[in-house]
Amino acid sequence: MDQNIYRNNTNYQPQDIEDASDFYEAINRQSLTHQLSDTRPYVYWTMEIYDKENGIKGGGGLGVLAADTRRVAQQLDIPFVVVTPFYRSELHQTINGLAQSEYSIPVSPRKYGFEYIDTVTITTDHGFGTELDIFRKQLGSTQFITIGESNFGELYQGLGSGDHRLYQEVALGFGGYKALKVAGIKPAVIQLNETATIFAALARLDELCSNGMNLYEAIVYVRKHTLYTNHTLVQAAEAEFSRSQFDRYVMPNIKSRAVRGWVSDQFHGDFIRPNILAIELTEAKNGVSRLHAQVANFRDKNGDKVKFHAVTNGIDMETWVLPETLKLYQEKDIIDKFGLPTEDYEAKIATITADEIRSLKKLARQTMNDILGRRMDQYGNPVHIPEEAILFDFKRRFADYKRPFMPFEDTEELKRILVEHNAHYILAGKVHQGDFVMYDRLRNILGQIDQDEELRNRVHYIQDYDEELGRALAIGADTAINVPIIGLEACGTSWEKDIANLKMLISTSDGGVADIKPIACLEVVGKNYHEEVESLYSNMRAAGAILADDHLLVENVHKQLIAYLPIISGARMVKDYLKFLFPQSGK
Fold first, then answer.
1. Tens of pLDDT, residues 208-251
2. How many CB atoms lie under 10 A from the CB of residue 531?
3. What are phi and psi of 156, to 5 degrees?
4. What is the structure's pLDDT at 74?
5. Tell me: the pLDDT tens digits for 302-317?
6. pLDDT tens-digit profile of 32-51?
7. If you average pLDDT over residues 386-400, what whole number do you get?
8. Is the pLDDT of residue 1 over 70?
9. pLDDT at 297
10. Cβ within 8 Å of residue 367, ≥6 positions away
């Protein structure tokens, strides 16, 4: 991939960090110099990562977060290993006849500079072995350890509780743990990014017991060195597997009789949700926003509610923010060399002028239009947004709870807003494969647009949403729309990219936005859905007025940045994880 997609036009240069000890000292964790090393790194397990630059294209926000976490660790020189599948096919979207369809293209780790290091084997029923190829890629202080084979399948292939999904999870857990051994890596700590990665902790438990450690001592050890990061709000929404499935895919990979017995005891009748294993095998557990940690409804085997610590997701600002905007933040001493807000960042943000904001947004619009010129709308045509036009956008997975359809409930009102404010609207985001309800929703929205000449000229659905398009819209649009049903968005990070790029945000009080009370943006409120729709339209009009007035623009950009910059910072996120996992002795 052309690196200029992420580092284009740049007068901004990241400030060098000599080594991680600088960052450890800054966050008062100097002892980490001795606790984390190349052979004992921080190990991050994830079923998906969205890092197209390195050839791995995930499914959405969770994968983007994983990629950002690794990038920030590299910038901070932290020894960090990502264990993940390298899926051999990459899913893409196209629009034909205003309806979504998908197609796949093959991908190879070798094409992206990954080095083959060995093959490991996992076992399924009847003793049959499956060989997994291990590929590695070093990126500064970080590296990928990936597993895969020709029949591994695509990301999230099959039913969530199906045999193939369980095979993929077992392969990543047990196969990935063996791959670490081959690579000579012993984790200082393991972060499990969602429940699907729990088999890595189970593999570690089995190794300890197979080497002679008492089961309960081994459980205590695994608990103390494993973090479970949950992105799902309701336990019942997670996958469930049967005993027979575990007998075929999980048990053959466990050597210790004691561990097999312990796993069997975790079943409720003939079924188990792997999140029970995650709860039992981890002492540290976190949700990915304050609201998520409060409302996540998970219970342990005894029925007691599980307590989640809050570590709100952050972003890699070097990837997602216009370089010239980052340069402004550094020149004004708003962020330090680590990407953390400075002590007086609020006062420094207050010095950003309307001229600076408008100059940066003009440059960002040019950058965005360069990208849109290479992409296709719902009719297969490139898009160009006039420099003087206001641009609203909705860019996130096309899921029911995110409510991408809300602005289209009254197309006449939407049209009036766009015409009165000389505005365009870009909609971008794929329907998850197999979500037939949302396939129909998308087709209906595109049909509504198609029936009106003014909407056809002003509302653009951009096909095949990915990192490149997400970044282009984050920097180049003027106002972002984020309207999930309150209580259903774990965090979301698209809104963080918008605020960091000096955009207005219209949002419900959900996910990470709700870390600040009251939320520091244009809030969509209402006692019912109809009232929320009216509130959205009112806020779109308000955004148009703000963008036309220098005083209002500066006031609102300052308000958003002051409230949310500490949340947005990916370095802050990494700092919070390190302080959570490595507390000061005696505290």
1. 999 999 999 999 999 999 999 999 877 766 889 999 999 999 99
2. 12
3. 60, 35
4. 97
5. 889 999 999 999 999 9
6. 999 999 999 999 999 999 99
7. 95
8. no
9. 84
10. 8, 9, 322, 472, 475, 476
Contacting residues for 230 by C-beta, under 8 A, at least 6 apart: 194, 195, 275, 278, 285, 286, 287, 288, 292, 296, 298, 308, 490
Mean predicted confidence (pLDDT) in 389-416: 97
Instruction: Say if residues 146 and 49 touch (Cβ distance below 8 Å).
Output: no
* Integer CA distances (angstroms), 235 to 167, 354, 429, 513, in order: 21, 46, 26, 23
- Angle (CA) 453-456-460 rounded to 5° is 170
- Residue (of 330, 281, 287, 278) closest to 307 by Cα position: 287
Model confidence at 207: pLDDT above 60: yes
DSSP letter, residue 335: B
Q: What does the mean pLDDT of the chain come to?
A: 93
Joined tokens for residue 566: 């500490």
Per the model's pLDDT, the better-predicted residue between 13 and 367 turns out to be 367
Note the helical H segments in 342-435.
Answer: 345-349, 354-372, 411-420
> Which tops the pLDDT comparison, 52 or 561?
561
Asked whether the beta carbons of 393 and 479 are under 8 A apart, the reply is yes
Contact between residue 542 and residue 558 where contact means Cβ atoms under 8 Å apart: no
Instruction: Give CA–CA dist 9/28, Å, rounded.
Output: 36
Rounded Cα–Cα distance for residues 250 and 243 (Å): 10
In order, the DSSP letters of 77-102 are T--EEEEEE--SEEEEEEEETTEEEE
pLDDT of residue 232: 84
Which pairing describes strands 423-428 and 459-462: parallel, antiparallel, or unpaired? parallel
> What is the C-alpha separation between 393 and 426, in angstroms, rounded?
5
Task: Report in angstroms the alpha-carbon separations of 36 from 30, 57, 148, 187, 189.
Answer: 11, 28, 28, 9, 9
Q: Helices in 211-282 by DSSP H: which ranges?
A: 215-224, 243-249, 257-265, 274-280
Instruction: Classify strands 115-123 and 129-139 as parallel, antiparallel or unpaired.
Output: antiparallel
Helix (H, G, I), strand (E, B) or coil at 297: strand
Burial (0-12, 13-18, 19+ Cβ within 10 Å), 156: buried
Q: Using CA atoms, how far apart are residues 214 and 535, in angstroms rounded to an integer?
A: 59
pLDDT at position 12: 57
* Euclidean distance between CA atoms 285 and 192, whole angstroms: 10
Torsion angle (degrees, nearest 10) of CA 461, 466, 472, 474: 90
Average pLDDT over every residue of 183-193:
96
∠ Cα 16 22 26 (to 5°):
120
3-state secondary structure at position 548? coil
Query: What is the per-residue pLDDT for 13?
Result: 64
| Residue whose tokens read 């003027």 | 478
The reported pLDDT for the residue numbered 7 is 41
Q: What is the pLDDT of residue 4?
A: 39
CB 519 within 8 A of CB 513: yes
Strand partners for 559: none
